[in-house]
Amino acid sequence: MDSGPRRRGRAQLHPGAWWLWALALGTAATRTTNPLLLALLISVSAYVVATRRPDTPWSRSYGAFVKLALAVILIRLGFAIVLGSPIPGTNTLLTLPELPLPAWAQGIRLGGEVTAEALTFALYDGLRLATLLICVGAANALANPSRLLKSLPGALYEMGVAVVVALTFAPSLIADVQRLRAARRLRGRPDQGVRGLLQVGLPVLEGALERSVALAAAMDARGYGRTAQVPPAVRRTTAALTLGGLLGVCAGTYGLLTAEGAAYGLPVLLAGLAAALAGLKLGGRRSLRTRYRPDRWDVRAWLVVASGVAVAALLALAAARDPAALHPGVVPLVAPTLPLWPAAAVLLGLVPAFVAPDPKELS
Amino acid sequence: MIRFEDVSVTYDGAAEPTVQGIDFEVPEGELVLLAGPSGVGKSTVLGAVSGLVPHFTGGTLRGRVTVAGRDTRTHKPRELADVVGTVGQDPLSHFVTDTVEDELAYGMESLGLAPDVMRRRVEETLDLLGLAGLRDRPIATLSGGQQQRVAIGSVLTPHPGVLVLDEPTSALDPAAAEEVLAVLQRLVHDLGTTVLMAEHRLERVIQYADQVVLLPAPGASPLLGDPAEVMAVSPVYPPVVALGRLAGWTPLPLTVRDARRRAGDLKQQLRNAPDKGRGEPRDKPRTTRARKRSAHPTPVGRAEALSVLRGRVQALSHVDLTITPGETIALMGRNGAGKSTLLNSLVGLVKPSSGTVLLGDATPHRTPPKDLVRKVGLVPQEPRDLLYADTVAAECAAADRDAGADPGTCRALVTELLPGVTDGTHPRDLSEGQRLALALAVVLTARPPLLLLDEPTRGLDYAAKARLVTVLRALAAEGHAIVLATHDVELAAEIAHRVVLLAEGEVIADGPTADVVVSSPSFAPQVTKILAPQHWLTVTEVRAALRESGR
Question: Which residues form a coiled coil (chain B) (predicted)?
Fold first, then answer.
């Protein structure tokens, strides 16, 4: 239909690379409460999203994540105001009427003094969580989550499809709610308010159920769930490896987290992980499925991941070396300053804006 | 290729078999059309081919169905996936992935084809169906015709010998339907694919069929044969066949071209018919009625320079429309031309970004819903959206309350439109046509002077459509103004006084039905095409004229 020189539409970055990059930035955000550094992290991820996100329905979810992050900050501040805060402070901003609570509710406070220190602490804390959320939103906008699920090992494929289907159902569910609420207006009933929403609930669920059944029929007719015959021995080994592996992972994690188990924790965790992976690999034999044009992990993917990991590692290092700069004090209140070399480290996260393919050139 | 041997299907909880005595064979490489009124079990027969009946739907299947030598009793749908491709009524509920290219590959991935084979077949299919320009597009952003083509493509890539399609063109505008049918035609001719499809709109598909399987009534055994022979006895038939039956042509013509060749005598007769001269407006009795009504000082609805912006899309731009009482207007145009948006702005669901909409002297989007229902009523594309209750009686009681009408008003309307429906019936158990009638009754309870219908004939068979036409004519005669958005040119020809054509949000034609549709190749009804250059629109008109001239 259309012609002309056009680069391959699939010259996209591996979705896994975007997710690793974004999660690494998120990890970096957990290492600091310095609002300037956090703001810098948000700007870095926002710049990359602005320049590198493709024009698709899922990439518009970034705005929703930003709103969610703002809501998190507001809720955190609200809690600090209403429930008080363990932070001792002297700069009282206002005093709310305190609700006397019975003796068994000791340690909980409702109302009372609101100090500038408590609010600043809550703001820093909320901002850190917000940054993490925005980073996840960036990953969502840059890489189609269902493409990421396509890269799952064969044994997990059926679970992956279930998740993909659920992901595509959410938007149509919202569209259904909007359509049915609008239809209430045609019956002469108010189309706004909570009651309207509740009354369309049942028809919406009915509609969703019907669609899922239709989709299940279509998937069945298209060969979903065809399996290969595998010898019983392989089947049993798979089950043993997966179960044993998962148990090992649990035991190892427990060991790592408790004081006594530090010695055996790591080896058990690693052994468990290896067994579980082997089980998954073996389980993949049951699936006949092949992959159509799988995403390739190329140099650019490495560069993108490396930039994210570098940010996380350097901030972790900085947090260990110079905790004061990364965690500006709230008692007494001091204005946060931008520590120079951690800020430079955060800027490394901008690398994808230059090495990742530009979606606008592709289409 | 497909063989039914004395098959009957009984669903769980049903007293009678849904279909029985099904015994026919579809030879390889033929396009076979499954025809019949609503509710005779066409979808059940189609489902039995892919094995979804009874493996997925439950129920008992007696007899034997074999596809390419595989018995569906022992093969589950997924084990038939490489020989049968199935596309259901709603392409959207068929898609598993979110982009065109992935969707085409999905079936092959499930079958475990080698990557290089998959790559080749995806490219071939993109070319075959003209989808190459859309390969990276998210499926949700495609038009109805494009989605239908992607759905067909997605079952074609595993190279099935058999393609099963349930109502592939019902939801499409005439041009998109042509697009899909051209693809099917190509598959049958070039690849030797066997196609079995069910379709209500016979006028679109009958000419492509090699054979027709007719299910004449629920539980009756099917009739298989040459399309012309079957159409001679069928209870459902397109206008071209109706005209052929009227004129007594044998064998019956199935295409406009065949019919036109034989139409010499008929045209001669019609030329002599009183007052229906060639080229004169064909609308006389109705226009006079409309004129009499239009003496009313105020129109019931008016749009002036109406523009609607949706996101970045200009859904409507500078639309002017005046609706007078007693007038029936058909809104036509491609999928996405702005027909639904125009209807929605008339009921205030969509706010105009500039220009005005007036119902009498009220602005719809500022009118509270309670008052609005007395001014305008809309039956949406999916009538089910209007129905919330679990029985017909409860639905009627709620409608009376909503409209502030006397108790029993809605029930009386239901009895009039839907004789024989009991109070305890669940709206979900009604057929498509019955549900439409119920929604219509609910909307009419408030006696709105302006009635809007969005795609009312989707999924209706000819009998249900004829009933709808009678009801709408009676409403127009009572002075209701009716606006319907439709792809169905035959329906528009039958009842509309005026046709408004929309394209990309603009009105491109607005005039008496005869003038607008006659000049358009895709919106002209079959009778017009056959009897051109005389201006006839429907078989009913021709019949009346013949009767008069015979007298």
Answer: none
